[in-house]
Amino acid sequence: MTLTPIFALTQLLHLIAAVASLALAGWLLPRGRERGPAITAAAIALVLSSAWALSVVGLGIMAPVTGGLLSLSYLAWLWMLYRLFAHDERDKSVRPIRPVIFALAFVEMLRLALIVGQAQYAGVVPAEALILRFSVTFRLLFCVGALVLVHNLYAGASAQAREALRWPAAALAAIWLYDLNLSTVAYLGGEIPLTLTAFRAAALLVCVGLLAGGLIRKSGSLRFSPSRSFAFQSFSLLVIGAYLMIMVLVAQGLAYVGSDLARFVQLGFLVMATAAILTILPSRRLRGWLRVTLSKHLFQHRYDYRTEWLRFTDTIGRAAPTAAPLRERVVQSVADITDSPCGLLLTPREDGGLGLDARWQWPAIEVPAEAIEAEGASFFENSQFILDLDDLRAGRLTGVPDAASPAWLMEEQSVWALVPLLHFERLVGVVVLARPPVTRRLDWEDFDLLRVVGRQLASYLAEQGSQDALGEAQRFDEFNRRIAFVMHDIKNLASQLSLLASNAEKHADKPEFRADMLVTLRNSSDKLQALLARLGRYGRQGGEARVEIPVERLLADVAARFANRSQVVQVKREPCTIVGDREALEQALVHLVQNAIDASEDTSPVFLDIRREATDAVIEIVDSGCGMSPEFVRTRLFKPFHSSKPSGFGIGAFEARELIRAMGGTLDVESREGLGTRFLVHLPLAGMEALKRSIMNKDSEVA
After folding, report:
1. Local confidence band at 643 (pLDDT 50, 70, 90 cut-offs)
2. In sequence order, which residues have a C-beta less than 8 Å from that of residue 232 and are 6 or more positions away?
3. What positions does the domain Histidine kinase occupy (predicted)?
4. CA–CA dist 214, 234 (Å, integer)
5. Is 80 exceeded by the pLDDT of residue 275?
């Protein structure tokens, strides 16, 4: 077999026609309802035409399967023509249309029967000549009738309808005019003109071009504006088409060379090409590069905003029982826009800084308890600046304070960008994004979209925070009502017991009875008064007398209380003295140590550490227990009436934090699931309270 230039050109034309037809069909199928009544029929006709073109390449022009696919595609084009009459409902008013359509369909079905007969009588010369004569005649009849319908479709339409019908009518006319000429030459010459038949793909390409031009035409212009999915799918089809074309050319070349070695080389080339495709195409980095490249060179804007907003709404609005918490979905919705594989959410702490609130697919990164200081949070709130850390590392950014880009963020090379979330000009959180597979610089379009999305997410977070605060206030109200009744009853009981004791002192006759009664009543009264004092302590917050407390001795006493139950180890005994309520501080530390013991195995120690840090004494309670998630720390650990223990009241951690705050201190927590927890108690050293207050006042004045 000789590989002529004309043969190679016709093969290439059929491959291009197949890819173009399939790409246009893939774009039309999801848009059938919005584009008109004939779109589905056009998409099916394009798919069948693509199959015919591929059959020409694989099986040959004269193969029965190729002829059958061509007839099926013509039936689909005829169905499209009928559906075009429904554009202005002329299929209902012009009665002869349907009989003509059915007659033409019947003629093409007869031609399909002749193709089957041609396969059965292959080699019988008289039968082949007769079948050819009838086949060409039927094709002439079909083309003439179809062109008449196309003329009636356009000529009988209103001026307004012609704008929409001009392009599809021209596309159908291009196919059937070419076949009319081809069939005429065949009828007059008594044989199939192979050259004209081989170039039939050119007519299909013209048809596809006219259909595409009419569908993307807007306001009288031909501005090309395909969707992202269409561009990516079309590019993939073009790549596949080019691959098939290379395969065909190589195979034909090897067949031209001949010999057994050529077959071996052909098989080896197929194996290597398949292995390369299977290796390269699944690469996430390659897909990301293709997406970025196509978006950069084919589209005016980087993002398909409709698609992005639908995906954003779906991510945030997902309310299934198995859905991730809202704060994780907040991170995911921002990461999806920039193709980031993971991210963090930092939210404001009570001291003005930012702390870890949620992780999304980023369990490995270490985040300190105070992720960003108050000065950095103030910078993001006032400037609303989206920070590209690569620009900052490269020195392309100025004016960003060190507090907004702490060392742990700058040193972690996988951290890429920080997106502030603002609600009514108030910072609700900051999303930390990881580097995407294909790194790029953020531009104005990224900043605009992320800023809008950030405000929307901030409103969701603020709404959830308001709901949580309302629920907590309602629980507090219920708790206060119950406690009010309890305190009222206990107060009455205490008064009665006190009165009984005083009466017994006056009227009891027997000294023994009087002594026993007095002891019993006095004990009951003391217990009730102590209970009242403890219940009343929640509202006073530091009203007890303050004394100097040697913290290292207090830690030793706390460790001694658990000596018989678990191994509590005091690591350091650095002398530190604070001023506060010793009983309240001991109560808070005992609760924290007990929590650490409950979270740890029986053989796992709990460490107590005390050290000086500037103006503060820092107490650490460290365990290697089960740990807590950021969501649990934020929503449940310090929330009253939330307890992980079956018999707990859920106010221990809340009470410990409030007692420490009443002494001018703070309570922080750092925890990792499966690794353990560290509580940090910061208390001002004796004599440093006034200095610390003055420093805080100066900072507030500067801000």
Report:
1. low
2. 290, 291, 294
3. 485-687
4. 18
5. no
CB atoms within 10 A of CB 443: 10
Backbone angles phi, psi at 260, to 5 degrees: -70, -30
- The type of residue at 558 is V
- In whole angstroms, give the CA distance from residue 283 to residue 533: 68
Class of domain 5-225: mainly alpha
pTM for the model stands at 0.48
Give CA–CA dist 46/663, Å, rounded.
Answer: 79
Residue 166 tokens, joined: 């001009």
User: Are 566 and 604 within 8 A, CB to CB?
Assistant: no
pLDDT tens digits, 397-436: 888 999 999 999 999 999 999 999 999 999 999 999 999 9
Task: Check: CB of residue 621 under 8 Å from CB of residue 679.
Answer: yes
* pLDDT tens per residue, range 656-665: 888 888 888 9
Answer whether 204's CB lies under 8 Å from 51's CB: no
Q: Residue 169 half-sphere exposure, CB side, CA atoms within 13 Å?
A: 20
pLDDT tens, position by position, 515-529 = 666 665 666 666 566
**If we measure between CA atoms, which residue out of 332, 329, 310, 307 comes closest to residue 318?**
329
Residue 137 identity (one-letter amino acid): T
CATH node for 311-540: 3.30.450.40
How buried is residue 174: exposed, middle or buried, by Cβ count under 10 Å (0-12/13-18/19+)? buried
Cβ–Cβ contacts within 10 Å for residue 664, how many?
19
Residues forming CATH 3.30.565.10 domain(s) in the chain: 547-702
Residue pair 355/346 in contact by the 8 Å Cβ criterion: yes
Distances (CA, A) of 47 to 162, 269, 580: 26, 29, 83
Contact 450, 383 (CB under 8 A): no
CA distance 345 to 86: 55
DSSP state of 647: T
Query: How confident is residue 467, by pLDDT bands cut at 50, 70 and 90?
Result: confident
The DSSP result for 373-406, as a single string, is -HHHHHHHHHH-PPEEHHHHHTT---S--GGGS-
Q: Can you tell me the distance from the alpha carbon of 563 to that of 605, in angstroms, rounded to the nearest whole number?
A: 11
**Closest by alpha carbon to 89, among 153, 171, 167, 39?**
153
Query: What is the rounded average pLDDT for all residues in the chain?
Result: 76
Residue type, 689: E
Which tokens is 485 given? 């009744």
User: Where in the chain is CATH 3.30.450.40?
Assistant: 311-540
Q: Would you say the C-alpha torsion 618, 623, 627, 632 has a positive or negative sign?
A: negative
Q: Are the beta carbons of 334 and 343 closer than 8 angstroms?
A: yes
- Which two tokens mark 655? 């009470």
Can you tell me the distance from the alpha carbon of 38 to that of 208, in angstroms, rounded to the nearest whole number?
15
SS3 (DSSP) at 219: coil
CATH numeric code, 547-702:
3.30.565.10
Who's near 483: CB < 8 A, 6+ residues apart? 535
- The span from the first CA to the last CA of the chain, in angstroms, equals 86
Rounded alpha-carbon distances, angstroms, from residue 543 to 546, 662, 687: 9, 9, 19
Residues of the chain with CATH 1.20.1070: 5-225
**Cα distances (angstroms) measured from residue 466 to each of 315, 460, 473:** 21, 10, 10
For residue 541, what pLDDT is reported? 46
For residue 218, give the DSSP letter.
B
Evaluate whether 231 touches 301 at the Cβ level (below 8 Å): no
